[in-house]
Design a protein that fits this description.
- The chain has 294 residues and is an alpha/beta fold.
- It has a single domain (10-141, 217-293), classed as Alpha/Beta hydrolase fold, catalytic domain (Rossmann fold, 3-Layer(aba) Sandwich).
- Helix content is 43%, strand content 16%.
- It has helices spanning 50-54, 83-96, 110-120, 145-152, 156-166, 169-177, 188-198, 203-213, 215-231, 248-252, 254-257, 273-293; strands spanning 10-16, 19-26, 33-37, 59-63, 102-106, 125-130, 235-240, 262-266.
- It has an 8-stranded mixed beta sheet, with helices on both faces.
- β5, α3 (110-120) and β6 (125-130) form a beta-alpha-beta unit.
- α2 crosses α3 (110-120) and α4 packs antiparallel against α5.
- The protein is globular and about 50 Å long.
């Protein structure tokens, strides 16, 4: 699959929810929209190679969530860094861009954020791609144990344990490389950029607040699952099977609520786009392409 040179990526900002949201956009707006939602500790940068591979077929939009990438949150906004807030910001974002119909690509944090958007505007969602985007309790792996301890007792000590384990170059690089057969195929600028942006004043506290709030996503899982069950949308569930955070049972569980979901495990880790971007692009075309064109 060749990079599509006819559809250059545009790097833009839009004001939404009192925030200056940075986003990447490519493709013809007359084509079906695919909204790409990143996870921790990345940003829309994680879609840098996927977007050109799909821009002849889709209108691609990839925002940076507040606290990530290049999105700017004014101090006077007094933004509460919670997943409910992410859902509200995404709602304002799609309204600001007048996006009335879109498929969702959700990964990691992008799943609980994007599925809140789906619950707000269920009639707008035309399809789903979950790449290690969890919505089932059985999908939570052992790597969550320090964070589970933090949920159970949000003490300064447990907060520091999470900080020391995750919020540094070693921790971010491990998330990119764990379970990857050929680590030399993963571009180092990805985890270096993530680490650099974590060093912005106040950002590590934001991330620790989000780790704590992630527990509230678990209480929303039944709502997300009901959405899958009620809509029966075309769905591609494509996961790196060696992800220590979101494990394969969470992928297979999608078929309980949507038996037609296509579930595929890849021989890679958490950031599957770093090693399997061309394959994932091909599978999106196969599973969503015809549906989105109708």
């Amino acid at each position: 699959m060749k990079m599509n040179k006819h559809y250059p990526v545009r790097y833009q900002f839009v004001d939404a929810d009192g925030i200056r949201v940075f986003y990447r956009e490519a493709g013809d707006r007359a084509r079906p929209t695919l909204l790409l939602l990143h996870g921790f500790a990345s940003s829309s940068h994680q879609f840098r190679e996927l977007i050109p591979l799909l821009a002849d077929k889709f209108h691609l939009v990839a925002p940076d969530l507040p606290g990530f990438g290049f999105t700017e949150v004014p101090a006077q906004r007094n933004y509460r860094y919670r997943f409910d807030s992410f859902g509200e910001t995404l709602t304002a974002f799609v309204d600001a861009l007048a996006l009335k119909s879109y498929a969702l690509y959700v990964f990691d944090y992008g799943a609980p954020a994007g599925l809140r958007l789906a619950l707000r505007y269920p009639e707008r969602v035309t399809g789903l791609v979950s790449q290690n985007g969890n919505a089932y309790l059985e999908g939570l792996g052992d790597a969550w144990e320090p964070i589970r301890a933090y949920w159970a007792a949000p003490s300064a000590e447990n907060r520091q344990i999470v900080h020391d384990a995750v919020l540094n170059l070693e921790g971010i690089r491990w998330q990119y490389l764990h379970g990857v057969k050929t680590p030399e195929s993963v571009a180092p600028e990805a985890y270096y950029l993530d680490t650099l942006l974590l060093e912005r004043p106040g950002n590590k506290e934001i991330q620790l607040d989000l780790f704590l709030d992630y527990a509230n996503n678990l209480t929303r899982y039944p709502e997300f699952q009901a959405f899958f069950r009620q809509t029966q949308l075309p769905a591609l569930v494509i996961w790196g099977e060696h992800d220590p955070f979101f494990i394969p049972p969470g992928a297979h569980a999608w078929k309980r609520d949507n038996p037609n979901a296509v579930v595929e495990l890849l021989d890679t880790g958490h950031f599957a786009l770093e090693t399997h971007v061309e394959h994932i692009a091909l599978r999106i075309r196969e599973v969503l392409g015809d549906e989105q064109s109708q």
